[in-house]
Amino acid sequence: MGSSSDVPALRRGLAVLRLLAGRPGPVSAASVARELNLPRSTTYHLLSELTEAGFATHFPEEKRYGLGVAAFELGSAYLRHDPLERLARPLLRKLADRMEKVAHLGVLHGPEALYLVREQPRQPQSIVSDVGVRLPAHLTASGRAMLAHLPPAQVRALLPSVASFVDRTGRGPHNLPALRRLLTLERRQGWSVEDGFVTAGFASVAAPVFDHGERPIAAITLTFRHLCDTPCGASWPELAKEVRKAAEELTVRIGGHAAPG
């Protein structure tokens, strides 16, 4: 058994590993030491141990370090356990029962929202957004909840032309300027709303889930019946409060940090 004195060393090693994971390419030991405020001797020792264990790779010609194969294997094993769905399901179950509406977990898949989990309330409701269904991200509340926190260049890359803006019911943004205005509004508001954009007679409220780098990794949505002849401008703040609470809890569960509004 290790002693309690091993714990600070473990924490420093994990901090080095996280730093390597957060950089787009290899970094020097000096940079690691400077950014983590570590002595150089300690930094070299930690990098040596991580390299020996396969979690870091040393590039001698560049005098830099990057992630190793063991880090990739660990990440792949994590994904095989479907952690996002497992952590989200009980939260969605409670949300659906409490609000008596269908709750979803969705992620971005290119320019589409892909639904991973659906939980029905005690009184089941028939809606189009089932598990595995993909819908245009710019029309769905879940898609826009995530798009609102992406860099503008990334949004433009996902929806590069007017042809990218699929129309289902005549409602919703039809071009990039209209989408950007809506995303700005919803980012400030803290949640996204869809009123008949996908299917006439249904509306949704969604809030984003963030990873440890404050990036939108998913969205939690409530979908319910709502019919109005023209968009009525409802934003359902009471529903949004509960959806945001669930999204914030899932963010905490996955070790994430909410992005500033």
List the defining traits of the structure above.
Arc Repressor Mutant, subunit A; six-stranded antiparallel β-sheet; 261 residues; alpha+beta; two-stranded antiparallel ribbon
Please give a structural write-up:
May be an activator protein for the gylABX operon. The protein is of the alpha+beta class and 261 residues long. The protein folds into 2 domains: 68 residues, Winged helix-like DNA-binding domain superfamily/Winged helix DNA-binding domain (Arc Repressor Mutant, subunit A, Orthogonal Bundle); 173 residues, Beta-Lactamase (2-Layer Sandwich). The chain is 43% helix and 19% strand. The protein has 9 helices and 8 strands. A 6-stranded antiparallel beta sheet has the order 5-4-3-8-7-6, sandwiched between helices. It has a two-stranded antiparallel sheet with strand order 1-2. A hairpin with a 2-residue loop joins strand 3 and strand 4.
Domain module tally: 2
Whole-angstrom Rg: 22 Å
CATH class descriptor name of the largest domain: Alpha Beta
Helical fraction equals 40-55%
Largest sheet: 6 strands, antiparallel
Q: Low-confidence stretches at least 5 residues in length (pLDDT < 50)?
A: none
- In DSSP terms, counting alpha (H) and pi (I) runs of 4 or more, how many helices? 9
Strand neighbour order, sheet with most strands: 5-4-3-8-7-6
Q: What structural category do the secondary elements indicate?
A: alpha+beta
CATH topology of the largest domain: Beta-Lactamase
Q: From the coordinates shown, what is the CATH architecture of the largest domain? A: 2-Layer Sandwich
End-to-end Cα distance, whole Å, is 45 Å
How many beta-strand runs?
Answer: 8
Overall pLDDT score: 89
* SSE order, one letter for each helix or strand: HHHEEHHEEEHHHEEEH
Q: What's the CATH superfamily of the largest domain, by name?
A: GAF domain
Shape label: elongated
